[in-house]
Design a protein that fits this description.
By secondary structure, this protein is of the alpha/beta class. It has helices at about 15-30, 65-70, 120, 150-160, 185-200, 250-255, 265-280, and strands at about 1-5, 35-40, 75-85, 90-100, 100-105, 130-135, 135-145, 165-170, 200-205, 210, 215-220, 220-225, 230-235, 240-245. The chain has a single domain (about 1-280), classed as Nitrilase/N-carbamoyl-D-aminoacid amidohydrolase, CATH 3.60.110. The radius of gyration is 18 Å and the shape is globular.
Length: about 280
């Protein structure tokens, strides 16, 4: 199985330009024989949109998404955009495209409102986290801040996901002592390895690069194996189509040696969460 992570620098609010970039990188991924190409969070629009979000939003039947579905025939793709619903709610969404159609949509559940982030001011929260079946296996798809909540990843693992995809627009923040890496990149990379090893699953992390309003996005997209090993990594700060072959049989090997998912106690977890809910909220 061959994976492509499309570490791009989308232009803020320029839907036509970003669409053309997607079409070209999908073409390159298919030419390289990739089974899946993953783009970052809000890859079609840019991230710090504010009121621009309402001018570049797409519905699931928009022609632009139709073009991407057609372009991706013969492979699978993950693209991210501002989704407008029929009742005029707006979500940060990611669509999984397969067989020329949208197979699954995830709406960002956790909208950060701290520091430089204002997601919740402009967008509605998603209300579900579900794994789904793709041609190559069972997949879980999350968006950036979602990955910082272990309950979200736990739900996907319990729902049978073997491939955890995190699409992100992570800005550079905090310099680690010595100045060699960023605090934000160190933290995310630690999460990627932890989740891969704890849930004995592949992790595909795709982060964007470029600048918006003086804010730099650091890239560093990577593929992590189910034993926590980094199988491939894109550079910091520069665009790259990172293509890497993975061996799905690694899932079997790792889970024989480390049967953590087998031994999970879902009923106990649910029972204790219910007890905590009752204690805190009286329900």
């Amino acid at each position: 199985m061959k994976i492509a992570l499309a570490q791009i620098a989308p232009k803020l609010g320029d839907l036509p330009s970003n669409l053309a970039l997607h079409l070209e990188w999908i073409r390159q991924a298919k030419q390289s024989g990739c089974d899946l190409v993953v783009f970052p969070e809000l890859s079609l629009t840019g991230y710090f949109l504010e009121e621009l979000a309402y001018h570049v939003c797409l519905r699931l039947d928009s022609p632009e998404l139709g073009q991407l579905c057609e372009a991706a025939r013969g492979t699978s793709a993950v693209v991210s955009f501002v989704e407008e619903t029929s009742d005029f709610h707006y979500f940060i969404s990611a669509a999984f495209i397969e067989d020329g159609a949208i197979k699954h949509v995830h709406r960002k559940v956790y909208l950060p409102t701290y520091g430089m982030f204002t997601d919740q001011r402009y967008f509605a929260e998603g209300d579900r986290i579900r794994a789904f079946d793709a041609g190559f296996g069972r997949v879980g798809l999350l968006i950036c801040e979602d990955f910082w909540h272990n309950s979200a990843v736990s739900i996907l693992a319990a729902d049978g996901a073997n491939y955890l995809i995190n699409v992100s627009s992570s800005p550079g923040r905090g310099v680690v002592t010595g100045g060699r890496t960023l605090g934000s990149s160190d933290a995310v990379e630690m999460l990627n390895r932890m989740y891969a090893q704890f849930f004995t699953s592949f992790v595909f992390f795709c982060n964007r690069v470029g600048y918006e309003d003086g804010i730099n996005f650091w890239g560093g997209s990577e593929v992590i194996g189910p034993d926590g090993e980094c199988l491939a990594k894109a550079p910091y700060f520069d665009e790259q189509l990172l293509c890497v072959e993975i061996d799905p049989s690694a899932l079997r090997r790792v889970r024989i040696n480390l049967p953590l998912l087998r031994d999970e106690k879902l009923e106990l977890t649910l029972r204790e969460y219910q007890r905590i809910l009752e204690q805190r909220f009286g329900r």
